[in-house]
Design goal:
It is a single chain. The protein has five helices and ten strands; from the N terminus they run E-H-H-E-E-E-E-E-H-H-H-E-E-E-E. It is an alpha+beta fold. A hairpin with a 5-residue loop joins strand 2 and strand 3. The protein starts with 5 loop residues before the first strand and ends in a 9-residue tail after the last strand. The C terminus is likely disordered.
Length: 217
């Protein structure tokens, strides 16, 4: 069965001063970011990810860590990577949109998450990005702008779960909506399970390779 990943949302108003919870290396990374909004997004994503790692370790390993004891760097592909404490089984993904950060955690296989603020998109977006099959699903399941963003979030989550270079185009990814809030995604030879939902004015999505595990949350 596919293990359900852990998710956590953070806003730019929900964390302390960076020096109180970032490691020295993370502070150096943060200080290299010049744009104010990009800084806030980065902080929101890191705060969500650290909170998620702390929660997992406390519940599953009876290990209580402060945020500053957790370090999240980046793999060569650019994907977030848990560097301290070292645990190769833990995979994390981070997304941010409009000052909110979303983090996902899964065991044993890469996970991808995405977050989309509900907003208007270009009128030709669905024609450029969605296949005929996907456009038929869009017309059947949705009546407003939310539907296009669901497909967008699912495709972005799948790209992050695959973690390869070069990054595939959104049109190369095939999404099939199955049960409400669930989907199957085809990306090259990969077949990923996915879910999506809504948090306030945001659409969230996660995607990961099927696992043989019973560690659902």
């Amino acid at each position: 069965m596919t293990a359900k990943p852990w998710l956590q949302l953070a806003t730019e108003r929900s964390f302390p001063e960076p020096s109180q919870w970032l490691t020295a290396e993370e502070l150096r990374t943060f200080q290299r970011i010049k744009a104010w909004q990009r800084r806030q997004d980065w902080l929101a994503g890191r705060w969500a990810a650290k909170g998620l790692v702390r929660e997992y370790l406390r519940e599953r390993a009876n290990l209580a860590l402060d945020p500053a004891q957790i370090e999240i760097g980046n793999a060569p592909t650019g994907a977030p990577l848990l560097q301290r404490p070292l645990c190769s089984e833990i995979h994390i993904s981070i997304a941010h949109s409009a000052g909110y950060g979303l983090a996902g955690l899964a065991l044993g296989a890469p996970i991808g998450v995405d977050l989309q603020h509900i907003r208007a998109v270009r009128l030709d977006f669905h024609e450029r990005v969605l296949s005929e099959h996907e456009r038929a699903q869009l017309a059947h399941h949705f009546s407003g702008r939310e539907g296009v963003l669901v497909f967008w979030a699912l495709k972005e989550a799948a790209i992050k779960a695959q973690r390869t270079r070069p990054t595939p185009a959104l049109r190369e990814i095939s999404v099939t909506l199955t049960e409400p809030g669930q989907a199957e995604i085809s990306l090259g030879t990969q077949r990923l399970k996915a879910q999506w939902g809504r948090w306030g004015e945001f659409i969230w999505a996660w995607a990961l390779t099927p696992l043989t595990s019973s560690s659902d949350r």
